[in-house]
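Discussion board: Methods & Data

I've been asked by a reviewer to show the raw model output for two of the constructs in my manuscript, not just the figures. I'm not sure how much to include, so I'm pasting the format here to get opinions. Each protein appears as its amino acid sequence followed by a line of discrete structure tokens. Is this the kind of thing reviewers expect to see in a supplement, or should I convert it first? Here is construct A:
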Amino acid sequence: TWATAMAWVCPAHMLVAEIAKRNLPEKDRRELDRVMGLVNAISGTIDNTFTASACWPDDLKRNNLHAMEDWHVIDLAYNPESIPLNVTNEQVMASRNNVVNVLNELHGTLRQCDGMPDGCSANKTFELSFSLHWVVHLVAEIHSPLHCVTRYTKEYPKGDSHGKVEIVDVDGMYLDLHRYWDGAAGQLDPVPRPLDVQGVAYLQGWVDRLMEEFPPSHVSDVGLHSFQEWAMEGYRLAVDAVYAYGNTTLDKDYQAQAHKLTRQQLALAGYRLSALLLDFSGIPKHCRALCCLCGGLCVGVHFLITLVVVMIVLTLTAVVYVYSVVKSDPAVHRPPTGPVESSSGPPRSMYEDAQETLEYPLLPGE
């Protein structure tokens, strides 16, 4: 597992994509498979589905295409020893070539289409497929804490390169800190691509586990939709948890925390990716959060919400109408009292009127 760890290991990227896909309507799931297949067909990759395509940007690096390598990270500085630096975190955030601003630009490209991909002209179909590949991949990357930070110390005055130069001992195995965390702390097995039946079953089992352990309702800040906020969230996790080891040996408590935190981040990334994909597909905004909570039944939820609103409006209208009638003429709801006048003759009592309606006359006192 450690030997294959490169960014999030490929199974981790596929888990994020599969969680997002599970929380989408069926129509959008089929569209995603089709659209992602456009780049797959051109590049001749081993990706055969939307889920497997989540690893494609890392395939480019393995094929020695490193021009977009900076897209995967942002170099926010964690500087606990106050090492003199030439750049501030504000300047880093403003630079164009980092995961935050690349996501912003890719998001802008996708938002030019009203849907996926019905709102795009034919000559933009490749751009749509290319951008979707990168968005799916980078949403996962930005939720891996060490992709959002570089630590500066006297030992590493030029930075630790997102933990890649810090070697740690994990149960007698030595590897860099970045590889440990991007390998989901050693929890995932390799999954061959193209995905076969066994690979799909393995991923589905993990998705079931992650969504049960971290359902959307129990994951904080699922609704954050600013890529800058996501990066700052990862930065804080790195400072508070990733760099919290006392020495280079990662003890059992640290490993247990790493296991839980990486599972949480995988689930959170999947839910947020789902929200982004719903944004591109034109599903109403007020429905997107419910879509994750209801397992993709967003259209049904939207209909139910509309029906409930209509029923409430009709009920309130009827109540207001009845109240206005009653208020304008109190006699409408007042029961008759005293003698009841007949159409002719002297006034008759209610007792006399009742006698005429019975087969046998009432006796006084009955």
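Construct B, same format:
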Amino acid sequence: MFTLSVTVLLWYTYVQRKKDMEGFGEMVPDSIKEDVRAFLIYSIIATVFFVVLLLVILVMRKRVAFAVELLNQAGKGLIAMPLLLIQPVWTFIALLLFFAYWCVVMLFLSVTGKPIQYNNTINGEMHVEYQEGELISYFWWYHVIGLIWIAEFILACQQFVIGACVADWYFTRDKKSFSSPILRNIGYLIRYHFGSVAFGSFIITLVKIPRAILMYMQSKMKGSESELVRFMLKCLSCCLWCLEKFLKFLNANAYTVIAIEGKHFCFSAKRAFMILVSNALRVAAINCVGDFVLFLGKLGVAGLTALSGILILECVGDHSSVSYTSLAVPLLVGAVFAYLITCAFISIYEVGSGDITFWIYDV
């Protein structure tokens, strides 16, 4: 119903904006034309999405119902641990602080080396250039690899903490006396499993670096390489991208096994791999449907933001959209920001429901 309401409102707004455009006669500003065209595109996309969504729900209603039940269980876990919703904020702050530190070190590296003084014979000005030594070039590689590794490590720590907290809640029989285990699991991570998480994130780094090199090669060789070379580079990049996604999925489940059984990373990854392979079709089907349901939730928040923006811009001021030159651009920007913020917080639901799915087949 929400998708239908957004679709109807977009078509209604398009009709109203078109009537406003006709009121200008032949002297229609280009911004008004672009606004009307943008609302027409939004309305068509919303209509197509609504039809596809309706067909998917009718065809896969049982699997959708099961995925919704998994998300419902994950939601109950978050109700019991509301502070878990703050985890993306702490992760973002940690990434921001690390990136600031990384930039400061990069500035120091850029001015590290042997200073060489140059004098301008024309105007008498003098400038100094730092010539890098061989050791500094190695530090650049070390610094770049460290950026990727530590960023993946911080994200992996968030996955471990969320998975461990959801596991504690899921396997607790008396949930009425359940207390939030966030701080306990953070201490558990720091004391026992920092190495496992660091090793898992390092594996992801080993895949990201060759992929980044291939992308750099593609950008440098753009327009000069042959069709065969371009095709091979794209195929290699695609294979590495698929491998990276698979390893991230395997690592997430391995962290779940580590949180439950307390084993090292290699044992946990092997156990997670065997469980996933033995239930590959069912896990793939449930994960695809679950990801689709979560995607609908993200679009729902973005659509609600756009809906609220339309109502606010239509009602505030002169109670008419004519006073605004363009509604499409601010609504699109607001919807995109709402979608990105929702992705950060719904990732907790994604980890929680994925862990519950894994435990169902593990048991």
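Answer (T.O., handling editor elsewhere):
This is acceptable in a supplement if you add a one-line summary per construct. For B, something like: The radius of gyration is 26 Å.
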